[in-house]
UniProtKB/TrEMBL annotation:
Signal peptide span: none
Record-given protein name: trimethyllysine dioxygenase
Pathway: Amine and polyamine biosynthesis; carnitine biosynthesis
UniProt keyword list: Carnitine biosynthesis, Dioxygenase, Iron, Metal-binding, Oxidoreductase
Gene Ontology MF terms in the entry: iron ion binding; trimethyllysine dioxygenase activity
Protein family (similarity comment): Belongs to the gamma-BBH/TMLD family.
GO BP annotations listed: carnitine biosynthetic process
Stretch list, region Disordered: 52-88
EC number in record: 1.14.11.8
Role: Converts trimethyllysine (TML) into hydroxytrimethyllysine (HTML).
Swiss-Prot/TrEMBL catalytic activity: N(6),N(6),N(6)-trimethyl-L-lysine + 2-oxoglutarate + O2 = (3S)-3-hydroxy-N(6),N(6),N(6)-trimethyl-L-lysine + succinate + CO2
Listed cofactors: Fe(2+); L-ascorbate
Metal-binding as UniProt keyword: yes
Length: 462
């Protein structure tokens, strides 16, 4: 049975299914705030009337189809009041800029050799310290070739701007290129039938590295097969992606289960699905694990869970629970080693969203390292109820991909998306691996998968 719920101010009709709190299937709405208000209204209507309503003032806006889609795949203006003209011709663009453009902005996005270093793409001018005439507009006119506009400033500086430069900065594709976004492919236990894998030898070519980065952005993980089972080969592969992150555990790690570092990862105990580094303000983006040997025992199977798929499942079954885990900050800590007491600069929600595109960007979940929940005492019940649902999804064997790590087969995974765990084991295992910062990981993806023009339009002129 479905009941039509009409929002009195937003002019939206939402469906509420009596058997399940399903998200509304409303038409696409381009403005993030409207989408956020729509979701809050849905959560309010879906909540049982006998329970207290947990209201949140949040700027989070989700695509009506779910948290893994950008808010809109159509042009949008999330970072300025600038909007590209409706007609992409030089004459209309010149008139449009005359009425709206700020001279300081036009001067600092000029790409000529005087205004921008041609080798580094860095800006040479500082519009805040220039003579006022240097950013004052004298004339804006369509270029003779019809491919852009020519601008003359009051200090006689002349600039040319192609039409595409103004269109690019507001397209959804440009916004996605900035974030290194690619549509994700969610998975469950059946990914075991065909896990994403590349051969080590293929990574010695540009296309090989491009394919590896794309697989990890799509699936959240990939195996590198047929590689030497040595720490040297493992470290070299990591460094070919980006600098290895140094932490209180060291940089590249090569360890056995002797608790040499005070963390349960350095034991033979079972580990529940978790993400690493929740105690850092910015957890590592990419993680590598390579088992070099396992002697005198058995067990130690590894597990992976797609955190994005689990979050989306929670969103489908209880939008209100998803909202709570997206807006309630959680503290975390690393305190086991002498002289170490690390905590994030602030409490961070379990689900973190891209502020521009609106979709889910990061899952932070580590029960062992979790500290307090940053919410009022009367709201703790709501957080624990929501977290219990998420934990149940993560613990469902249908969502867990189990496998045995093998010498010569390294695992690389996105620590902002994929949770990893382990069964208990006996004997002695030697493991190596390391972390790579999120920015370095995304940089490698962008530089191996985007064209020079795509990189330029999403950074320099954006």
């Amino acid at each position: 049975m479905k009941l039509a719920l009409r929002h009195p101010r937003l002019n939206l009709t939402l469906d509420r299914t009596s058997s399940q709190h399903a998200p509304a299937r409303s038409p696409s709405i381009s403005h993030c705030n409207l989408v956020a208000r729509q979701r809050r209204w849905l959560a309010f209507q879906a909540a049982p009337r006998s329970a207290p309503i947990h209201r949140h003032e949040s700027s989070m806006g989700l695509h009506p189809e779910g948290p893994l889609m950008p808010v809109s795949r159509s042009p949008q203006q999330p970072d300025a009041s600038f909007a590209s003209p409706g007609e992409a011709d030089a004459q209309s663009l010149a008139k449009w800029l005359e009425s709206r453009a700020d001279g300081r902005w036009l001067r600092e996005i000029c790409s000529c050799g005087e205004c921008r270093n041609q080798d580094t793409a860095q800006r040479n001018v500082n519009v805040f310290k220039m003579n006022q005439r240097s950013s004052a507009l004298r004339q804006i006119s369509p270029a003779a070739n019809g491919k852009g506009v020519e601008v003359i400033f009051e200090d006689d500086h002349e600039s040319f701007f192609p039409i595409q430069a103004f269109i690019n900065r507001t397209t959804a594709q440009t916004q996605e290129n900035r974030a290194g976004f690619t549509p994700v492919k969610t998975w469950s236990a059946d990914v075991a039938n065909n896990p994403p894998t590349v051969k080590h030898v293929d990574l010695k070519t540009g296309p090989g590295m491009s394919g590896l980065m794309r697989l990890i952005r799509e699936y959240g993980f990939a195996f590198i097969d047929q590689m030497p089972a040595t720490p040297e080969a493992s470290e070299d592969l990591l460094r070919s992606i980006g600098p290895i992150r140094d932490t209180h555990y060291g940089a590249f790690y090569d360890f056995t289960s002797d608790l040499s570092s005070k963390d349960t990862a350095y034991t033979a105990e079972a580990l529940e699905p978790h993400t690493d580094n929740t105690y850092f303000t910015e957890p590592a983006g990419l993680q590598a694990l390579h088992m070099l040997s396992h002697t005198g025992g058995s067990g130690g199977e590894s597990s992976l869970v797609d955190g994005f798929a689990a979050a989306e499942q929670l969103y489908r079954q209880d939008p209100r629970a998803y909202e709570i885990l997206s807006t309630t900050g959680v503290h975390a800590h690393a305190s086991g080693n002498d002289g170490v007491n690390i905590q994030p600069s602030q409490a961070v929600p379990t689900f973190v969203h891209d502020q521009t595109l609106g979709m889910l960007q990061q899952v932070r979940w580590n029960n062992a390292d979790r500290g307090g929940v940053a919410t009022a005492f009367e709201n703790l019940k709501h957080w624990y109820d929501a977290a219990a649902q998420f934990d149940e999804i993560l613990s469902n064997v249908k969502n867990q991909y189990w496998f045995q790590l093998q010498p010569g087969k390294m695992l690389l995974f996105d620590n902002w998306r994929v949770l990893h765990g382990r069964a208990a084991f006996t004997g002695k295992r030697r493991m190596c691996g390391g972390y790579i910062n999120r920015d370095d990981f995304i940089s490698k993806y962008r530089t191996t998968n985007l064209s020079k023009d795509e990189l330029s339009s999403s950074t320099v002129t954006g």
